[in-house]
Amino acid sequence: MTIVISALQYLGYVLIFPGFLFCFLAGMLLCGIDRKLVAKMQKRVGPPVLQPFYDFFKLCGKETIVPASASKTTFLMAPLVGLAALVVIQLFIPVFSFSAFSGMADVIVILYLLLIPAMSVILGGAASGSPYAGVGLSREMVTIISCELPLVLVLLAVAKTVGSALGTGLCFSLSDIAAYQAMHGSLITKISMLPAAVAMLLIIPGETGNHPFDAAEAETEICEGLLAEYSGAPLGVYKLSHAIKMLTLTSLFVALFLGGLGTGFVALDGIILFLLCVVLTAVSISFVHAITARLKIEQIFKFYWTLVSGLALISLVLAWYGL
Amino acid sequence: MSPVINALSYQHFPIYAIMVLFLGAFLIAVFGRNRTARNVLALLSITASLAFILALIRPVMLGGEIIAYWLGGRVPAGGYAIGIALEVDALSLFFALIVAVAVFVSGVYSIQYMRHDDNEREYYTLFLMLAGGVMGLVLSGDLFNMFIMVEVLTFAAVALTAFRNTATGALEAAFKYLVVGCIGSTCILVGTAMLYAQAHTLNLAQLAQLLPGNLNTATKVAFALLFVGFGTKAFIVPFHPLAADAHGAAPASISVMISGVLTKSGIYGIIRLTYFLFQTMNLGTMQFLLVFVGSLSMFICVTMALAQHDFKRLLAFHSISQIGYVLTAVGLCTALGVSAGLYHAMNHTLFKGLLFLAAGAVLHETGTTDLGKLGGLSKKMPHTTVLFLIGAFSISGIPPFNGFASKWMVYQATYQKAVESGNIGFLLVTIIALVTSVLTLASFVKVSQSVFFGQLPKELEHVKEVSFGMRLAMGIFALLCILTGLFPGLVTSYITEPAARAVFSVAQYISAMGFDASGVAAESVVSFAHVGVWEPISWLLILCIALLAITIVAVASKYDNVSQRSGEAVDTKYELFYGGEAQEFSQVGGGDLFWGFKHNWRGYFDFMYRLHSGVVNDYALWAVVDLALVMLFSLIVL
Amino acid sequence: MILLNYIASFFLIALGLYTIVTKHNLVKTVIGLSIADYGANLLLISIGFNPGGTAPIYTWTELNPSSFFVDPIPQALTLTSIVIGACVTAMSLALVIKLEEQYGTTDTREIRRLRG
After folding, report:
1. What is the mean pLDDT of residues B102-114?
2. Which DSSP letter does residue B566 get?
3. Chain A: residue nearest B400 by CA?
4. Residue C12 domain flag
5. B429: distance to nearest CA of chain A, Å?
């Protein structure tokens, strides 16, 4: 009987909170809030906050056209695999003190799991057989390479700080990092973690592929690159994945740096997490979107591997020498 | 009655495993004109060898026994070894297992792959000699025996590289491999001679008893010579251009052998040298040597791979990059490090074998491996595409395949070492390893796009799927990749951990041969507790549930309500965007899939391109300079 | 006298390596490889020398505690190594012949289609 109950409980985690339903609602809301904020900053009215929901349901009703030169199975399955992988990553990130499955994964696993949604977009684009997709996937891959180094440095810096405080020397587990912050206060209050936090804020728009780092999906140059041949429900699923990725990365930031702000109650923690994600989206995604122009692909690479990595490296060195 | 039972006892299995391969080679040379006889003999000998090795797993790995076998029954007299010995402990059996599996799958693949070549008899003879040579190397307990086996396998590998001598660059690659490979073999010979001069024995166990603590100039120079010699076989950093040339030019089944088996024999030699013969790995400077060479190999080879135009050459550079991972992990001298390194060595044979076999399938059907001329093959060769993608995900370290499990252990090991020793250099190694992993992924995305996706050129319209035998061989490797990725706990506790324990139990190695091991440090108490937790089964279960839920929703809402557009003529003016490389005649750089990355690093790439000039004298110069540097290093440090 | 052997063997090995590195003709490279092998053989055979010892060939009746032989093991190793050296030379010369047929030249600076 208890097996049935815990199976139902885990099913609830996967499907409702912090799984599929939560990701869907919160991710799309974040996306809508982001567009509204950008419009306000640019002195426009902008679309309603619920616009992504309207877009998604409208796309689901449209016809899907598969190009003749595409491999049909990969073309249709890739968005679904990407969405499933993103939902699973969200399950592994603790919501302050509540962790559904996060005992099973640590930061390095999350780092690698984040590659799977990116790979699904790339494979979907490659399978479509279009030349725009070819250029788009090369830019997407270079963007991933660029974001990987500073992300690694930030994660190592956090792991080292928590590890040396706990005495074990290294601590890769996210639930341990959350527990440490619940007792000792958020990591962002430490001076040595501040450069890492700024670096992470700059990594978030790069990983999600938002402006100004969206060379991979440049509407004006390569007709949305990877998604050029997509239409109908698969396109809706990709837009949904994009929105959920925003949620995942901002909640990762909260889990790493702002972990001490939770209460003990799961429902309240969920709402606090969502509000913090909104604030982070406003700061790192919307604000940067509104005031910059799109960067060229080699500028993106240089930016991440010099400036952002430099910031993260400062944090890592400070954490290493115990300051 | 009793001689028959004695002949079947598992004590004899190591020598049977070696002899059945050489016997097969000899019989094929004599009877091989008939195709059926040839195929039957080859399959029989590789299956028999695999069976003997598998039968040894129970006593040696699970039972912890070390088989000490004196050829001809010549046991030591007066405390000195007078005969040739085979000594099989868990480390030797681990490498023998990798060799036997790779030989088996490569042999099955060769039957279909080499069907259209003439001189098949010579091919199988050389192939079985290569297999026998490597098997003899990893199972032998005598230093000169190892030298002989190294020579046998070098010859066979060179001859097989030049096998299709009308292929582009085959003869050239074979000549360069022969020259630098023989420089390496000469180094091993001179090193062996100097060790014999000092210790008057060639037996590995006895040398392990006599050498540590008694190092003089001659033995230090011998260390440098042996290290460089085995490094030549493993193709680590200054010798990596040979790997690129040899793998690129050899037939695909031989590329599997060279990259999966020969490189491991070099790593095996280095482990025996540093951990057993000289027992100097607890010195920080010795760890620095291995970790430095490994990190250089990792990084240089993955960046060189991004600039390649040829499919197999690119795979070869990636091969050496992964060997860099293995060497770095083994050089850490911690339990987790050695365990991770050995696990990655096994995984590397599996996924690299799969990738080379897929490349061979593409070459067999289309006749070219130039990335610019291939494209869109996923529609014509769907099974090969799926198998290739499994291999590509494995090497990039995407969960749940086996590359992720072993790379994750490598990162844990380097980070743990960084924290334990307080040395920030190991942290740099962790960062290099992580960045190399994502560059590997980038490179395989490019290859997938250039070869399998994109548009099908007109010349390749006739391509069909490869025959069942070749797909079976690739399928075996893919299945093993998935299995070793899904059950890392089982693999670690039954296969890699006994081998890693054997690396640290030198005293048992010596006493199993009957020598006195009292002077040697007892089995060092190393903790094998793992640092983190990775349960692929649970993760996969969650992913499947999520995917199922989403697919149900998708199908219910008519997700696949598709209408197919009618096909149109292939437009050749977009062809330059499918090649994945910058084409020479076009000023649009967008065809080059990594323009953004290469542009920022253009100084480095130009320098590397000029440095790898292709002239055999330059490669020999690197070998000599490396020898001089390692000699200087060992004289100062040891 | 034995020291002279050691010096000569290392000189031969160094000479062989120098030839491989600097000479641009394929055949000269092969000769350099052989010279290095001969140097290694000389080293091997010199190691086993015991001053005043006789050849290690005996019948059972001649064997007594005062027999003094040179070491037979390096002699066996040297024989093996000579055979290996001959095989290396044979294979490399075969490759040189076919290379000259295919590329039309024996200059190593011209034979570099695989590079980069």
Report:
1. 90
2. P
3. A113
4. yes
5. 12
- Residue B589 in domain: no
Q: How many CB pairs under 8 A join A and B?
A: 208
The percent of residues above 90 in pLDDT, for chain B, comes to 39
Place of tokens 């097996």: A3
Mean pLDDT for all residues in chain A: 84
ipTM of the complex: 0.95
Give a yes or no: residue B381 inside a domain. yes
User: What pLDDT was estimated at residue A198?
Assistant: 92
pLDDT of residue B138: 93
- Domains identified in chain C, total number: 1
Asked, for residue C108, whether it belongs to a domain, the answer is no
Is residue B571 a part of any domain in this protein?
no
- How far apart CA B368 and CA B360 sit, in angstroms, is 10
C110: nearest CA partner in chain B: B615
For residue B522, pLDDT over 60 is answered with: no
The total domain count for chain B is: 1
Range of the domain at C91: 2-50+71-103
pLDDT digits (tens, 9 = 90+) for A54-93: 999 888 888 888 887 777 778 888 888 888 888 888 888 8
Question: What's the CA gap between B614 and B483, in Å, rounded?
Answer: 40
Residue C27 in domain: yes
Nearest CB neighbour to B596, from listed A19, A63, A301: A301
pLDDT at B559 (0 to 100): 64
Tell me which chain B residues have a C-beta less than 8 angstroms from the C-beta of A134. 449, 454, 577-578, 580, 593
In angstroms, the CA B161 to CA B170 distance is 6
> Would you list the DSSP string of B495-562?
IIHHHHHHHH-HHHHHHHTT---TTSPPPP------SS---HHHHHHHHHHHHHHHHHHHHHTTTT-E
* pLDDT band of B531, cuts 50, 70, 90: very low
Question: Is B404 inside a domain boundary?
Answer: yes
- Where in the sequence is the domain holding B297, given as residue range(s)? 2-544+608-637
Identify the chains in contact with C, defined as 3+ C-beta pairs within 8 A.
Answer: B
Nearest to A180 by CA among A250, A291, A255, A130: A255
pLDDT of residue B562: 62
For residue C29, give the CATH number of its domain: 1.10.287.3510
DSSP letters, chain C, are -HHHHHHHHHHHHHHHHHHHHH--BHHHHHHHHHHHHHHHHHHHHHHT--TT-B-S---GGG--TT--B--HHHHHHHHHHHHHHHHHHHHHHHHHHHHHHHHS--BTTT--SS--
A119, A163, A298 member nearest B600 (Cβ)? A298
pLDDT at B590: 57
Predicted local confidence at residue A163, as pLDDT: 83
Flag whether C41 is in a domain.
yes
Task: Note the pLDDT tens digit of each residue in B611-623.
Answer: 888 888 999 999 9
Q: Which chains touch B (3 or more CB pairs under 8 A)?
A: A, C
What's the confidence (pLDDT) of residue B181?
93
pTM of the model: 0.92
